[in-house]
Design the sequence.
């Protein structure tokens, strides 16, 4: 275990996914209390019962479809992107799957999120556009207003709109529900923004993979950047806990990082399995933290112990 600035001790546990070569990518809490994740290497959707440690896996109808992003929808099901299949899928908590083909060929569906309108929104990274899909499977695509070749990624919802990172344009984009796009440049060029999360204070935090920092965009669109001390850590995923702290994955450094909302680093914690490929990190409703280990076929768990040794959520 590693100690934090406040004396809290952090332990990282690992749970092996049953199917070899799973390559878990994005993970998200499900409506059933389990952690759901995409197995991009085996074209499956998996889930972990975070209390018992039991896994369940569901093979997708389309082989080699490369599922990447996943989110709980407003309809009680999980929605996910199938990158190489150019589809969006829906899976119920008992494993029944439906797939929806996308109008634009080879659009590269990637990040996915729930919109304030109750629809699911997702990025079409290769096409440089975004789209929404209704619970009935009706797809509407929005291309106008984006910087060409911007490669939009992870969507989050704030102020009645969707916000996307633009990995190749070093920008954050706000997309209204009728598709009007406003882009906000990040101060550091070529910062490669990726995963995003909405903070309880209303700001949006995001990783800057090339700049080795976390970025923050406030309600007025002002962006500040907060560097991470480990060089070339290759930040990939970020989430926020109920106490407002930011937790993030350091892919190349093989660590989990922790930052206060004022930008102070609170700790970095080594992952037991070397070169595990830490990608997405997600907070469950009870505050427990889990992350995907793409190269190792594992789901990691961050266990927080108080200064006296008691286990926290």
Sequence:
């Amino acid at each position: 275990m590693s100690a934090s600035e406040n004396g809290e001790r952090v332990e990282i546990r690992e749970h092996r996914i049953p199917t070899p070569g799973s390559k878990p990518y994005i993970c998200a809490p499900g409506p059933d209390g389990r952690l759901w994740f995409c197995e991009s290497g085996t074209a499956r959707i998996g889930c972990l019962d975070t209390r018992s440690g039991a896994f369940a896996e569901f093979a997708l109808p389309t082989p080699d479809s490369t599922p990447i992003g996943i989110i709980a929808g407003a309809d009680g099901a999980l929605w996910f992107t199938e990158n190489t299949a150019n589809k969006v899928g829906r899976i119920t908590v008992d494993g029944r799957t439906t797939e929806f083909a996308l109008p634009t060929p080879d659009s590269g569906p990637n990040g996915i999120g729930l919109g304030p309108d109750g629809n699911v929104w997702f990025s079409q990274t290769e096409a440089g556009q975004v789209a929404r899909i209704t619970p009935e499977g009706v797809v509407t695509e929005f291309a106008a207003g984006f910087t060409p070749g911007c490669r939009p990624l992870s969507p989050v919802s704030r102020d009645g709109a969707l916000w996307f990172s633009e990995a190749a344009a070093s920008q954050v984009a706000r997309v209204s529900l009728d598709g009007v796009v406003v882009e906000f440049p990040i101060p550091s060029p070529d910062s490669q923004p990726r995963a995003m999360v909405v903070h309880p204070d209303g700001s949006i935090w995001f990783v800057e993979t090339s700049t080795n920092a976390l970025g923050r965009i406030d309600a007025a669109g002002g962006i500040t950047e907060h560097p991470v001390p480990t060089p070339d850590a290759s930040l990939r995923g970020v989430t926020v806990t109920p106490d407002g702290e930011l937790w993030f994955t350091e892919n190349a450094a093989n660590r989990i990082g922790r930052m206060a909302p004022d930008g102070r680093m609170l700790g970095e914690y080594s992952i037991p399995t070397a070169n595990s490929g830490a990608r997405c990190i997600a907070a469950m409703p009870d505050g427990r933290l889990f992350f995907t280990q793409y190269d190792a076929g594992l789901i990691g768990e961050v266990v927080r112990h108080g200064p006296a040794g008691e286990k926290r959520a």
Notes: The CA atoms of residues 121 and 132 lie 4 Å apart. The mean pLDDT is 96.
